Amino acid sequence: MKNIVELLAKFNIKPDSLEHFDLAITHPSCNSQNNTKHHDYERLEFVGDSVIGFVVADLIFKHHPSMSQGVMTKLRSTLVCSKGLASFARDISLHEYIKTGPSINEKQILNSDKILEDVFEALTGAIYLTCGIDVAFEYIRAQFESKIIDYNLDDLVDPKTKLQEEIQAEYRDAVQYVLIDEEGPAHDRTFFVQVKYNGIVLGSGSGKSKKQAEEEAARDALNKRSI
Description:
Blueprint: H1 4-10, H2 19-24, H3 29-34, H4 42-63, H5 69-80, H6 82-91, H7 106-111, H8 113-131, H9 133-149, H10 159-168, E1 176-183, E2 190-197, E3 200-207, H11 210-226
Antiparallel strand pairs: 1-2, 2-3
Helix pairs in contact: 4-5, 4-8, 4-9, 6-8, 8-9, 10-11
């Protein structure tokens, strides 16, 4: 496990105290191992989530002065959803800094959108509480701004909605999503889904939730239809 100071240095962040940062990278599984209570990132998530939402909203508003409220809301939701934040966390290799109990290994962390999302939010909360809003703003801006400027309107449409709209442009019936398998322990399940129309498999997908698996199946179907 790497020292969080190394990651902060990449963003030119040099905190006077590491108290909040130690909590931000500590998974709840460490509590049972260390015989502690609430010595983890969960409370910091609450703060970080709000700070990220505020800064992303500010950047969207400033970079897209003619964008409607509805599209701004969709863009923000796309960027700050679990999958979106987990993607940012992977970009900075955040999984290499997270402390866990023996029941969870680094590979499980890397594959878990939920853990990566939580720690990304907690780390942002720690930056805000320790260094202030200006430093937190710059940290978030460095990661989100290019995606906000170069957003693709098609990416803002839920793939399930888009697939249904395309199907109904030609036919009347709705597509169906079928859970075909699930694997892994209860705390880290992977779901496998197929999307069908009149019994024909249009696409397949997997994810850490049924919703995510359905979205991936719809995206797969859309890709195949475009080909």
